[in-house]
Specification:
By secondary structure, the protein is α+β, with helices and mostly antiparallel strands. The protein has 1 helix and 4 strands. It has one domain. It has a 4-stranded antiparallel sheet, with helices on one face.
């Protein structure tokens, strides 16, 4: 029983570390705290490679991520990807969040829902 508990704690710790590394590469858009729970909306803009049957070249995409933290530890995340226009390739680092906000569901937008 002790071995099972140790393995469960190890698995939880490794998953939390993986999620933390994944979330750390994103920009915080919005955060709400409810006690020890924190809900965050994060974003990442960049070029993404799609499967070869869709496109042979990377395409500009924006990713919004809904993150749930408990006492600062990432428990869960949900991502939503949208395509950006081809001309946005020249200014990927300068695209403000409000410019694409309307293309996302309300729970991933800038304002509180």
């Amino acid at each position: 029983m002790l071995i099972v508990m140790v393995l469960l704690v190890l698995a939880f710790s490794l998953r939390a570390l993986y999620l933390q590394i994944h979330v750390a590469r994103t920009e915080l858009v919005r955060s709400e705290e409810k006690g020890m729970l924190t809900y965050e909306v994060r974003r990442r803009v960049g070029m993404e490679r799609l499967p070869s049957h869709i496109s042979e070249y990377p395409v500009p995409r924006e990713v919004r991520i809904r993150v749930l933290r408990f006492a600062g530890v990432v428990l869960w995340r949900k991502e939503l990807h949208i395509a950006l226009p081809g001309e946005s390739c020249r200014r990927l680092g300068d695209i403000p969040a409000h410019e694409t906000d309307g293309r996302f569901p309300i729970w991933l937008q800038l304002g509180p829902y």
